[in-house]
Write a structure and sequence with these properties.
It is a single chain. The protein is α/β, with parallel strands linked by helices. The chain has twelve helices and four strands. The chain has a four-stranded parallel sheet, with helices on both faces. Helix 10 (205-215) packs across helix 11. The chain is globular, with a radius of gyration of 19 Å.
Length: 257
């Protein structure tokens, strides 16, 4: 079943690229499990792949995992080019210009993600490629845990309909580095190394997945009714302010004509 899912996604990626006359696949590699899985799926298409590591004020352990995966990709797939593009200088210049009047740490964290998006699209534009997203279903359609026009700015999203647990299953099947699989999930945008769980009110992806299923009325075996209600309430609290990311951009309808 896992092999069939992998084959289906790989075919879907390649079919989309070919149908749109695109020649390369461009994917950011962060050292996390999602980007490791997606970059490997891209590699399995046989198309030229640019796996891009973009350190920007990133803690060393996260960068090391990204480098480890990039090396593994190039050793196992001759169609992969691993590029390391240092963004600290660009980010420092941007922060210097903005911090006097618009100093906000959360906004700066999102700006790091947007600088990475710009980098990926520069590479895609120069190589006639598409940017391949790495968000999973819980992040993209559950709690909206991504940066609008940052890591949310992509051309296709191969794992956006997969729960995090399914991503882990694929990672194991693809022999992704064990340190990457076991590492606490993080967006890599904070210099203090905070994890996704730290930013999601202490909920793990297992918790979020269960809550998402509860919200969608999918039966689960999670705890008692009171525990489920508390979990669901927290999930909805995280989800509500992020709905603007998941919904289409509002358009004023001109009815005066």
């Amino acid at each position: 079943m896992t092999q069939q899912l992998i084959d289906n996604i790989v075919k879907w990626i390649k079919d989309y690229a070919v149908a749109n006359s695109m020649e390369t696949l461009v994917v950011g590699v962060s050292g996390g499990i999602d980007s490791a899985v997606v970059s490997t799926l891209c590699a399995k298409t046989g198309m030229p792949v640019y796996a891009v590591t973009m350190p920007v004020k990133q803690i060393q352990s996260q960068h090391d995992l990204s480098m480890t995966h990039g090396q593994w990709l190039t050793e196992n797939f001759s169609n992969v080019t691993h590029k390391v593009i240092e963004l600290n200088t660009v980010y420092n210049a941007f922060k210097f210009e903005m911090q006097q009047d618009f100093d906000d740490q959360h906004a700066f964290a999102n700006s790091k993600s947007r600088l990475r998006m710009v980098t990926l699209y520069q590479i895609a534009g120069a190589t006639k490629g598409i940017v391949v997203g790495t968000g999973n279903k819980v992040e993209d359609f559950g709690v909206g845990f991504y940066t609008k026009y940052g890591d949310g700015g992509v051309d296709i999203s191969p794992i956006a309909d997969l729960y995090k647990s399914e991503v882990y299953e694929i990672a194991e099947y693809l022999n992704i580095n064990k340190d990457i699989i076991s590492a606490p999930p993080t967006d890599g945008l904070w210099e203090d190394g905070r994890t996704d769980k730290d930013q999601l009110q202490g909920l793990s992806y297992d918790d979020l997945e269960k809550a998402m299923m509860l919200h969608e009325d999918i039966p689960t075996e999670h705890g008692h009714d009171s525990q489920e209600k508390k979990l669901l309430d927290t999930y909805l609290k995280i989800r509500k302010p992020n709905l603007h990311k998941m919904n289409p951009i509002p358009i004023y309808k001109n009815t005066s004509i």
